[in-house]
């Protein structure tokens, strides 16, 4: 038994001699502790904006200060005179200037209007003084986003257009790169009928870019597969629009008609064709 | 140099060889053993840096080390097709091939070989008890078994070792 213990002890002593070399030991310690050094944050040297002038001569400095004074003062004067409508016009004074009669959209938040898409016949000249705000006309530019019936929130611009022929009763589709990219279904084709305005203009509703030779009534009442009618061969006009304007969303139909009759559509609305 | 660094260096000086040894007899590759040793102390250093409360550094680093060896075996097993084709050794077994490469005398090799021939559940407790002089409680913490189970394994291991060495 003693011999066993002795042999075991010698063996264990030998095993305990298994060690790393000093180099290996130091290398590992360096790898661990060395990489965890705190990062010293060196504060950036700060320069004053006027420090650059130190090397300038007296007259040079004077010239620079004069230029700064003129440019800053000029900017204030320029704004004070009201030359920049986007900055200076307010609801109190914008009507006094006939050149900028519209409320500046950059300063006025666009409030979604709740309107009703249910409408039976709007091909007649609309005379409602405020049809947009009073739930009568849908002005959504993209017909696929407008549900048939119910209320929608309108943020899209008011689009007024004129076509080379009267397509007010024709189905329209989106056309891009030689293919029809979107189209109405029989359920929502009724909402493609535009609102008729003065002088042959129309208020755009759920219409597309090109018109088909199918009338809206034919499309709605078609007994077969209605998708058969949505064909490129049925497009009758690839460039139907002769004029198109984007009017402020604050405009009602009376204001649009007034603008048309006063020949101010190009002034008050933006030409987008 | 702050206190934590000093404490870490002290622990490293005291325990690094034991950890290296423990790894080397299991992985049979000196470079690999150095890597695992470094990883072990790296984890200890990070734990200390994070301010973790470590009650017993020795059992803590041995536990980390054992887990890293387990990870290494798993990785090796998933990478090696040869290893997959054979019934590969578990991580608690002393690697016999590594014993031959160790630069120690005959008695040391002999003891390691005999420990390596024992039932695998006896090997690590016996090694930690006799080579690293760890108390039963810490061995239990490292292996994840109760103190009683450690005592039983050590006693049975001693018995088996004695038989293997020809002292019946």
Give start-end ranges of low-pLDDT stretches of chain A: 38-42, 83-154
Instruction: Tell me, briefly, the overall form of chain B.
Output: globular
Count of helical stretches of chain B: 9
Shape of chain A: flat
- Helix-strand category of chain A: alpha+beta
Describe the structure in your own words.
The complex is a heterodimer of chains A (273) and B (168). Helix content of chain A is 27%, strand content 17%. With 273 residues, chain A is of the alpha+beta class. Chain A has two domains: 52-96; 113-271, no CATH class. In chain A, a hairpin with a 5-residue loop joins strand 6 and strand 7. Chain A starts with a helix and ends with a strand. The model of chain A is unreliable at 38-42 and 83-154 (pLDDT under 50). Chain B is an all-alpha fold and 168 residues long. Chain B has a single domain, classed as PhyR, sigma-like (SL) domain (Butyryl-CoA Dehydrogenase, subunit A, domain 3), CATH 1.20.140. Chain B starts with a helix and ends with a helix. The A-B interface holds A 1, 3-4, 7-8, 10-20, 24-25, 28-29, 31-33, 36 and B 5, 8-9, 12, 16-17, 20-21, 24-25, 34, 37-38, 41-42, 45, 49, 102-105, 107-112, 130-131, 161-162, 165, 167.
Strand and helix layout:
The complex is a heterodimer of chains A (273) and B (168).
Chain A: H1 2-16, H2 22-34, H3 58-80, H4 85-88, E1 113-116, E2 151-154, E3 158-163, E4 170-176, E5 179-182, E6 195-196, E7 202-203, E8 210-215, H5 216-221, E9 235-237, E10 241-247, H6 253-261, H7 265-268, E11 270-271
Antiparallel strand pairs in A: 1-2, 3-7, 3-10, 4-5, 4-8, 6-7, 8-9, 10-11
Chain B: H1 3-27, H2 30-49, H3 57-79, H4 81-85, H5 96-101, H6 106-117, H7 120-130, H8 136-143, H9 147-164
Helix pairs in contact in B: 1-2, 1-3, 2-3, 3-8, 7-8, 7-9, 8-9
